[in-house]
Predict the structure of SDR family oxidoreductase.
Amino acid sequence: MSRPVIVVVGAGPGVSGSVSRLFAREGYDVGLLGTDEEQLAELGGDLEELGANGQIAVVDVTDGDATSEVITSMAENFGGIDVLHFNPSAFRERDPLELTVDELLEDVALGVGALLTSVQAARPFMSAGGRITVTGSMAADKPWHKAASLGVQKAGVRNLVHSLDKTLEPDGIRAVSVTVRGTLGREGAFTPDRVAEAIWAAAHQDEEGWQSEVPYSG
């Protein structure tokens, strides 16, 4: 039997890296989309050590055509996609009186729009049982005014996940955002590895009681 496949959009050394390694340990092959070639190569090496077939692509995920092409290529090479994980967001330290409309739209294109592109590209290669997971944040409900666009991104991506879940449910594909209600750190309940475990659990919920948003409070 072929191994299941997860494609991670916005891969890097934090939560997305932990998600990639956790799924690899659980028997998944992993496709990685990110912007830092060195980080992707290092993560790809970790996946190889875990016995996973890893594919990496350096791509700006706000470039819709390039992102769609990469996801399509990965899906064809792997033979399908079982889980699509979406991680990116933009942190821009500007309050609402400093933030320009162009800056807000640029950040939303990364933190929300790129999910739409990614799902639309992955959908033809997903079947019943497929899952879409998203790294959410308490900023959706309690934004820090000094980084106003982040709260907009996290509220927007959560809203989009709810719509994706309802749209894809008839086909047996479900979407979920994991709202991380804490600050990421190297120790304690909010390490990237602990958050990755919460994302794994959310992706493997009982479908009868499926929730398209799952809070993680540690």
